[in-house]
Design brief:
- The longest helix has 16 residues.
- Helices cover 13% and strands 57% of the residues.
- It is built from one helix and nine strands, in the order H-E-E-E-E-E-E-E-E-E.
- The chain has one domain: Sandwich (Immunoglobulin-like), CATH 2.60.40.
- Strand 3 and strand 4 form a beta hairpin.
- The structure holds copper (II) ion.
- Copper (II) ion binds next to loops.
Amino acid sequence: MKFKFILISMLFASLSFGAAWEQSTSSQNVKAVVSSDKPLIVGNNALMITLNQQNMPIDNAGVEVKAFMPAMPGMPAMESKGKAVAQGHGIYKTSVNLDMGGTWQFQIFVTTKEGKKYRLKTSLSL
Ligand SMILES: [Cu+2]
């Protein structure tokens, strides 16, 4: 009985704290943490972006994302763009469609409610 309880507790702990994939990036005094509950795959990926400025969550911002892979021999450049939807507490959700494995450049375009613009860059590898 007690053993079962421990197993269930461990399951909940891993569900609530375990991002399967996570990456941080910053520009000026804006920091973004990009994470996914599941490992990145070829196809559609749901991403969570947490934005902070000097340790304060950035809310009510316009957030857009772009994933792209430059042209390779025998393959044109690929791109996936989208808007991220605010969830409160500086959290924004979006999804990107990644058509092939490899390293994708990932950019986050933030326009704060005061109208300041930031571009943060990182990469997605799968
Ligand atoms: Cu490619």
